[in-house]
Design a protein that fits this description.
Layout (H helix, E strand, L loop, with lengths): L6 E6 L4 E6 L2 H7 L3 H11 L13 E4 L13 E7 L6 E7 L1 H8 L4 E5 L6 E6 L2 E6 L8 H12 L4 E4 L2 H4 L7 E3 L3 E3 L4 H7 L2 E7 L9 H16 L4 H7 L4 H7 L21 H5 L2 E5 L9 E5 L5 E4 L1 H7 L8 H14 L3 H16 L12 H13 L3 H5 L3 H8 L9 E2 L2 E2 L9 H9 L12 H6 L8 H21 L4 H6 L4 H11 L5 H23 L13 H4 L14 H15 L9 H6 L3 H7 L7
Helix pairs in contact: 1-2, 2-22, 7-21, 11-13, 12-14, 17-19, 19-22, 19-24
Length: about 600
């Protein structure tokens, strides 16, 4: 095969055994790479009901057939496993030189099983893979540990690692690289920690072989030049995702006081415009020429890389209107290996729980010192941090009473930074995301507001969610490349079809790629259903009750809230268009149409297919 390396590296931490395996062409043709490889491998090899934090769980790092080539924003990989936060399929992607080095080492994925006898890291250098002692790294933050590993193995080494949060099995611990690049919100860092695996270090001396190297190189150069000429390029380079703070404030979708409101009185102080005056440098992923990481100096004099999600969740959502202080909280999360979205959501939950008398905790809205202390308590599971380390769903269930009403999540994954009191399409996107409430797969909110948010819950919104899931959560997660050139600058999707053909020699179309995305989504949904069995139902695809039951009290659309009956009809429309039944389970005919007949037969052992 061209484009693909055609090899998987398997490593059993319990035995130290390495296996290099050539995978069948069928895997590449049907699942492409990245998320597609991850869910297929987990489906085939993970025993249903496996404890996510047991040695039997499987951890996968997977690249795609475009990863590592000199193409726009192609330096990314997917990390996936069964989630300790949700109990279902979990993944995330992150930009890192590790993605490029994985391909240079001759692999398309690394599959890790077992549990090391002591703190260890896995070193992969071309055909060599061995477990090294990490006792001196255990307990170090991600910045310090990565620096030591690069000193030992070269500055160009790709390093994927965890901080104390992952070591202590915090349910929303992430995998971190390059001082702030992070992925795996549903607890992929905790899975690493459960395996006594501090880091994966990758170096490679080869190059993935393309079908048409000259043509691919020329296409890449043309693509880079095209991006530079886009109208919004200059503004993007100045603010990146941080422009979203002002946009959300204007449109009453900025998460504020644990998603009670969509506007924040201190929004200007944490905006992209304010950030512009503070930036000291910028960082980006490998092979990217539309860098999005803006670095500022925080309130303690250290550098912190900001984007919209961490600023909104650690700023307005907890009532903190000081960007340097927000940057301090963000830096702490990156060092400790905590998901910034999950942390901001959990702190907001804790503040509201304290306010409502459900939690004995001395903390108030906007309490910077209290938030700092809580972040450390979360990472080390000290005091109330032990309860909150489970995530807001499980913590609220343990608190009982009214607490679940202000636990803002879907399927156990905390919502990312968009209040959806009056954006039903985005609420549907959160609710049907394949990992829980995440914006990455179908960021339809901009389209929805620009086309008239007060419109009825029309079928077009279900269409748009599916379209974006096919593109963002399907094609980009399988290739694996970043979606920003397309969604932010209008870089046409046809470029990626041409890139794919030059890399692999496989002729395809956008329509065929969408169908592949549908296959991956159906298999991820089947994974969830298999894990939950008879407990699965459409209630799993509902956004937080707050958006239905507690109207906004502030801002230009105060009084607004989601309509439960209309949302339910929109959800059914989504199911119908996907070929899923009223429970949200893919129909047998749908699975067969998508080439998942064997998987359908397996799923029938756990539920009745219609």
């Amino acid at each position: 095969m061209k484009g693909w390396n055609g090899r998987l590296l398997r490593f059993d931490l319990s035995t130290g055994k390495k296996i290099v395996e050539e995978y069948p062409k069928d895997l590449a043709e049907r699942f492409v790479g990245g998320r597609g490889f991850a869910v297929k491998l987990l489906w085939d090899e993970l025993r249903p009901g496996t404890d996510p934090l047991s040695p039997e769980n499987i951890l996968i790092f997977a690249a795609g057939p475009l990863t590592g080539y000199a193409l726009p924003s192609s330096g990314k990989l997917v990390v996936a496993s069964k989630s300790p936060l949700t109990g279902g399929y979990g993944d995330g992607n992150l930009g890192s030189i590790a993605a490029v080095n994985l391909r240079r080492a001759g692999y398309d994925a690394v599959i890790i099983t077992g549990r090391a006898a002591k703190p260890s890291y896995l070193l992969v250098e071309d055909d060599r893979a061995e477990l090294r002692d990490a006792s001196d790294l255990w307990g170090l933050d991600t910045f310090k540990a990565e620096a030591r590993l690069k000193d030992a193995h070269g500055r160009g080494s790709g390093v994927l690692l965890i901080g104390p949060a992952g070591e202590n099995l915090v349910s929303f611990a992430t995998v971190v690289s390059q001082e702030g690049r992070a992925g795996g919100r549903p607890g992929m860092g905790a899975v690493m920690g459960s395996k006594n695996l501090k880091a994966l270090v990758i170096n490679g001396s080869g190059e993935p072989q393309a079908h048409d190297p000259k043509g691919l190189r020329e296409l890449g150069q043309e693509g880079y030049q095209s991006i530079l000429k886009r109208d919004n390029y200059g503004f993007w380079r100045r603010q990146g995702t941080m422009a979203t703070v002002e946009w959300c404030q204007v449109n009453s979708t900025l998460p504020t006081y644990n998603f009670r409101e969509g506007v924040f009185e201190g929004a200007d102080a944490i905006s992209g415009t304010t950030m512009e005056k503070m930036v000291v440098k910028q960082r980006g992923c490998p092979n990217c020429n539309m860098i999005c990481g803006n670095v500022v100096v925080d309130s303690e004099g250290r550098e912190s890389e900001l984007d919209y999600e961490n600023v909104a969740m650690l700023g307005s959502n907890i009532g903190l209107g000081d960007l340097r202080k927000v940057a301090t909280l963000n830096r702490m999360c990156d060092e400790l290996g905590l998901d910034t979205i999950g942390a901001g959501n959990t702190i907001g939950f804790a503040m509201e729980s304290a306010e409502m008398g459900a939690l004995d905790l001395d903390i108030t809205w906007g309490d910077f010192e209290g938030a700092k202390g809580l972040i450390e308590d979360l990472a080390y599971r000290r005091g109330v941090g032990d309860l909150l380390s489970l995530g807001v769903k499980k913590a609220s269930e343990r608190l009982g009473g009214e607490a679940p009403k202000w636990a803002i999540h879907v399927k156990g994954l905390e919502c990312s930074a968009y209040d959806c009191h009056l954006v039903p399409g985005m609420a549907l996107s959160f609710a049907t995301s394949p990992i829980g409430a995440h914006h990455k797969d179908a960021w339809v909110i901009s389209w929805e507001i620009s086309t008239g948010r007060r419109a009825e819950y029309n079928p077009e919104k279900a269409d748009k969610v599916i379209e974006f899931q096919r593109i963002r959560g399907g094609m980009f997660e399988e290739f694996v490349t970043c979606r920003f050139p397309w969604i932010e600058l209008g870089f046409e999707l046809e470029w990626y079809v041409k890139f794919f053909e030059a890399a692999t020699g496989v002729k395809t179309s956008l329509e065929e790629m969408y169908s592949l995305g549908d296959r991956v989504y159906a298999l991820i949904r089947a994974f969830w259903v298999r894990e939950f069995g008879g407990r699965w139902g459409r209630e799993q695809d509902y956004p937080p009750s707050r958006w239905f039951d507690e109207p906004l009290k502030e801002g230009p659309i105060k009084g607004s809230h989601l309509d439960r009956e209309k949302y339910d009809k929109l959800l059914q429309t989504y199911y119908d268009k996907r070929g899923w039944d009223e429970r949200g389970i893919p129909r047998k005919a749908t699975l067969q149409r998508l080439g998942l007949g064997e998987e359908a037969r397996e799923l029938e052992r756990y539920t009745t297919l219609k």
